[in-house]
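The aim of this short unit is practical: by the end, you should be able to scan a pair of folded records and say something sensible about each. We start with the first protein, listed as its amino acid sequence and then its structure tokens.
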Amino acid sequence: MVEYKLIPGLSDKPMLKFKSGDYKSKYALMGLYPYEIPNKTNFVVISLQDNGISLNNEVSKFLTVDNRSFPFNSTSIDKFDDFFNSKLNFTYDDYKENDLKSVASKYPNSIILIIHGGMGDSPNNGRVSDEIYYLSKINAITNSSRIQYISHDHLIKYNNYIKFNLWTQLIAKCDGTPWIIDNSTLQFIDNDTIILGIAFSIVNGTIMYGVTHFIDINNMNQEVTLKYIGRPAGRGSLYLKSEELINILRQGNEILSSHKNRDLGHYRNNSYSRDNQIKGERRLKLFIYKTTPLHPEEKNAIESIIKNPKILNYDFIDVTHIHIKSPNYGIPRLFDPDNTGTNFQYMNKQGTSIGIIPDNNTNIPGFQFRGELIIGTTGTFKRGNGIGGTKGTPKPLFLSIHSTLADPFNIIKNQVMALTEMDWEYTGESYREPFIIKYARRMGTLLSYLQNPNQSNFKSNIDIRDIM
């Protein structure tokens, strides 16, 4: 009979770094400015001909602070242009919905704002179809443009939270960096860390691509990488062959190396990094997040790089594989018996976790650790002097972990909380899933609309900003 050790824990969200300081809330962007200032200034505003909407005044008002309530109440920013060092240029045009598929061919190297209808279901009163949406994104990627869809309702209702969320996305799409994670207190993290999320693109019963979302923990470099697979999909087929995974890891290491000249100094200040410098070791920390279990082919690849780290030009490699289980596994809920008599009765605090370690800790050669982690990325949180949260029973993440580290629980808990804060597309207080899986999945969906999987002008390395 297998016995288990239960380890309770509570992890906090990380501090965020902006240009003028650190703060825990994303809304500090308005007062502390983006970590890296945006520099793309050519905007194209597209109105659907069917709507007959004149947008000049509405777009101008949308890009102006006209309501000084939160989060615009304590900032010197008066308009979106204030985030830039040079003047923004705007071009206005009308398109029919079906023609949006090639809009970036006419407007390359541009930020394209497409104002679609209201929030209804009809083609002229709602959002564009998924096909139009994804084909326009593909066209934008091939023409070095970026597209932001904005509902006409969101444009004219002037909701400050919606405006802030869209402004943040636009800062990122203009090659700015809204914020990065201040991980100077996170255990075992430095500038030789790669985190990747893996998903798959399935088209007509064939696994066309393995999609990998690479990031470094500082959130200054994010790229989505495509690996053509082209084998039949079936039960148990969602995995990477040993050589496929090793090639992806090589690619990730090249991406990391190409960005080493950026400002990484404050990520070298934790004890793990200092120990490596003293020992003279080049040690890579690799974390693989997947929605499928560890497959024998993937296990073989991991064993290979552990035994021969020179494959990736390192002296040592630490590997942690994290399987994010689907709800079909029967995810347990977490309750806080102390949180009673409030609007959030029994709801757990964000970051509440329970680690589960079996007495036969590991049965895979090369790994020191095997266990499971239940962690609530949503739940209650401090909001000023009160408590915030969404009423209900939050569903935590259920993670299955294999690692060469003796005890990876702390680092995984910190990482998961950080990975729910890194997303520039979402500025709310809580997000359940690590965004590294979100964008790998989205890229998989986008690729299903590629008519020619080997399209020569479609980039294999894609900045995360291209698919936001």
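Turning to the second protein, read its sequence before its tokens, just as you did above.
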Amino acid sequence: MKAPAEATWAELARAVGSIAQDASDNTSARQKWKWMAMCIVVALVCISWIGWYATGPTPDTRQAMALDMAKPRTRKQQLHGPTRQKGRWLMAYRFAQSGELQRLARCQGKGWVVQNGNCYVHSVPNEGIYGWSLPQTR
């Protein structure tokens, strides 16, 4: 009776071993395909990034894009933008023509003192502080 029982156990052991081998083969094949797919995805992402970086915006095109973004978008901005810009330039031009810009640059106004390379405003005795009025902003 021992012989048939041993034969059955041996047959069962071979069957279990065969099933275990098949399961491990299937698992390793799946793992291999997963790794291959992940490597392909990573390689494609790297190649895409290199391509984008190599053909992406240059400093000149970035500057052009920034200038395009600075353009007025609405009708109101289109109408009032140049007027405001022209007004600013005109105000700066008049400031320079009056000679006040030179006084400001050289710190030569009344009550202005140069200390350590910086221009400071001090009050003049019995006269107050000299300066100018700024235009009101909206």
